[in-house]
Amino acid sequence: MSGKWNDDACHKNHSFVCYRKKCDGKCLPFWVPYGRYCYLVYNDKQGYSWPDARHVCQSVRTELVSIHSRAELEFIRNLNYTENHHIWIGLTRDQNFGWGWTDNTPLAFVNWASGEPNDAFHPGEAAEENCVEMYPDGRWNDNNCMLKKGFACRHRQCKHQYVCLQI
Question: Locate the C-type lectin domain: which residues (predicted)?
Fold first, then answer.
């Protein structure tokens, strides 16, 4: 290699080099910071199933939101500015038929609606209520994971940003 730059077809494989760029306290574009995390609430008219909502979050290297305090819950609740949908959160049944966050953080705070979780059976639906939605008032409900709803994602504010150059 001569160390000179050259434009080339994008589909060709090339080597690359990365370096860390410090970016303390940064969120992805359009995300809202709170504490050490950044949040995005999707609440447009088109809803997503819980698995599809999680996939959307993971596609930008984030996770469905886990909620660990009343203050955090109120912050997220205030980001849900529309009542088009209840929003999916990252709480789901774990392997022991209990509840766990998808980001594996401890489940130390809950805000179930009265009578929830109830694993209710809905006529015409074969699915169980294994996923959790948050109502506009902040209360939680277990529901069928395939129902279409809004969702909330969360990521830790970055400490370093990696910039990669193709060589």
Answer: 34-154
Structure tokens at 15: 């080597």
Task: At 117, list the tokens.
Answer: 């979780």
pTM: 0.75
> Residue 84, exposed/middle/buried by CB under 10 A (0-12, 13-18, 19+)?
middle
Q: Are 8 and 14 in contact (CB under 8 A)?
A: yes
Nearest to 128 by CA among 111, 140, 145: 145
Q: Assess if CATH 3.10.100.10 describes domain 24-120+127-166.
A: yes
81-121 confidence digits (pLDDT tens): 766 679 999 999 887 768 999 999 999 999 999 999 887 55
65: its two tokens: 């939101």
Cis amide bond preceding 117, omega within 30: yes
Domain locations along the chain: 24-120+127-166
Tens of pLDDT, residue by residue over 31-56, are 999 999 999 999 888 899 999 999 99
